[in-house]
Design a protein that fits this description.
There is one protein chain. By secondary structure, the chain is an alpha+beta fold. It is about 20% helix and about 20% strand. The protein has five helices and 13 strands. The chain has an eight-stranded antiparallel sheet, covered by helices on one side. Strands 6-3-7 form a three-stranded antiparallel sheet. A two-stranded antiparallel sheet has the order 4-5. A hairpin with a 5-residue loop joins strand 11 and strand 12. The model has no long low-confidence stretch (mean pLDDT about 90).
Length: about 260
């Protein structure tokens, strides 16, 4: 296991289960405590600009040229049944490297004249439909990761939480079965100053489903099916998240 983290009893997440019955598989929505903001998972675009060619078309070209093998699952050819890149990567993600730039959701929404997040929904594969009308995204865009903050966003969020609560604050992390390598729920305990280690923990995949201090004054929520991470807590903390230039965050009054 990562240094500084040990597993504790799953009942430590029981209070979250009471707040959000049925959330044990993907993570628990803590609601506002008393305020909340959503951090949108980062997406990236080629520095050379957008293209109309989609990830699906690139995949088909590679298959036609016998440069890749069909993706098989249980004897089923997934390339015959689905569209690639309907959403971002599952779990861990980070800046792709040279040749790519951060693409803000607001910038992409402005191109198509649609809301950053569709009213009444949470950040997910349903967001920004005008940017991927045929399900597959343009090959020039790496869509947001599903279920986890990007690595840079997770580290920056932790810096804000440490500034608010202190590096030595005891915290607990819930790893939901949907993201755990053994498809079982786990609760880990450690201190906030070491929470960056959770991103690469052997039991999980990226940011934990929930992270909270022992006093439960704030909670983070990275649902395995969503493209945003919710931060619930005091209004002052939420305002810091919203104002941070390294994060793209917003309030969703309906969520």
């Amino acid at each position: 296991m990562s240094d500084g983290w040990r597993e504790t009893h799953l009942d430590e997440a029981g209070w979250l289960a009471e707040l959000c019955p049925g959330g044990e598989w993907t993570g628990y929505d803590p609601g506002p405590r008393p305020d909340a903001a959503w951090i949108l998972h980062a997406m990236y675009e080629w520095e050379s600009g957008p293209t109309e060619t989609t990830h699906q078309q690139v995949r088909e070209s590679l298959l036609d040229a016998d440069l890749v093998e069909p993706e098989l699952l249980g004897g089923i050819n997934l390339d015959e049944w689905g569209v690639v890149d309907t959403g971002g990567a599952l779990g861990r993600s980070q800046h792709p490297g040279p040749g790519w730039r951060r693409l803000r959701w607001a910038e992409l929404a402005a191109r198509t004249g649609e809301p950053v997040v569709t009213p009444g929904t949470k950040p997910s594969f349903r967001s920004l439909p005008g940017s991927h009308p045929d399900a597959s995204w343009p090959a020039s865009i790496e869509p947001p990761a599903e279920g986890s903050l990007d690595r840079e966003g997770w580290v920056r969020l932790l810096e804000l939480l440490v500034a608010w609560s202190g590096a030595d604050t005891p915290v607990l992390a819930y790893l939901a079965p949907g993201a755990a390598v053994d498809q079982r729920g786990h609760v880990l305990t450690g201190v906030l100053g070491h929470a960056a280690e959770l991103y690469d923990h052997e039991l999980g995949s990226g940011s934990p489903a929930n992270l909270w201090p022992v006093d439960r004054s704030w909670v983070t929520w990275s649902d395995w099916d969503l493209w945003g991470t919710k931060v619930s807590g005091p209004a002052g903390l939420v305002e810091r998240v919203l104002a941070d230039p390294e994060l793209e965050a917003l309030r969703l009054p309906w969520a």
